[in-house]
Each structure stands twice: as C-alpha cells, then as structure tokens.
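Batch job 17 of 40 flagged for manual review because the log was empty.
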Amino acid sequence: MILCYDRSDASTEAIKAVAALLRGAPALVVSIWKPVAEEALSPAGKPPPSDTADVNNRSEEAALQVARAGAREASAAGLDAKPLAVEVRGRTWEAIAMVADDYDAQLIACGTSRAGVKSLLPGDLPGALVDHASVPVLVVPSSKAAAERRRDVQESRGARRHTGV
C-alpha cells in the first residue's frame, strides 16, 4: 500500500488508522517534492542566486527525511514500512497514482483535515485520488475534521426532525 505522508496531523492519524486496520501489512510511505526551475530562482535578467541542482537535491533530501519520519511512525504503529521521496512535475495525484502503479500497490491511503465545503475546493489531494486512481483509496479524516463532520451530521438530523423530513 501507499501511505501519503507530509508530517501533518492528518497524515499521522491516517497512518495510525491504517495500521489498526492492516497490522503488519507492507507500506510505502510517500513524501513528495517539486523541483525548482532555474527561472524561478533568478530575478529578471540576473543569474540564479544558487545552483538549481543543489536546491533540488536539498528538496529531495528533505522529502526523504519526511518519508523516513513517516516510515518510523508507520513501523511503530505495526506496519512493515519503507520510505520513498517522489518528485512531482505535474499534478500530485498523478505522481502518487504512478507510484501505486509502479509498485503494484493495492491501496492508497491518505489523511485529510478538510471538512464541509473545504473538501470540495480545488487542491484536495484525497478527492483527486478518489476520482482518478486505479486502485482503492482510503481517506482518513483527521480527528478535528471527523468532529466537524459529526457535528454537521447532528445539526442536519436536528434540522430534519424540526421540518418533518
């Protein structure tokens, strides 16, 4: 399985939830990084302030450190985890879906801290994975998002009781 990890509370909680469901399962903990184009580092008409290859190497190493931290979390929770830093040149969901395909993953798991209308906004990785990935996607709401969702359901139930629906 692929576990999306970025050190957020939501991704950490997702690892723990997946481990509780699939104890001992092999997992590839994926952290992403995006390369910096040389043009992005230099003001108009001036050379870049540093070597883009160096900046990209540091970005990749930072992502690998994040993936390693996630793999430690996953291993401590009971999964057989390995870290992987993934370069993203286009859309994040595409890179993750390609990794799942490359490694014959049977599941992609990720956390989300979004609730309500926020989950419908652009940039929602879990939503994009659900819409596009070719393998099952498990989306684990953070404890905060889950509490907001429970509150929304309770409010909805109360409104239906009052309207007779």
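Reviewer: the log was empty due to a logging misconfiguration, but the result itself is present. The domain at 2-163 is CATH 3.40.50.620 (Rossmann fold). Unflagging and moving on to job 18.
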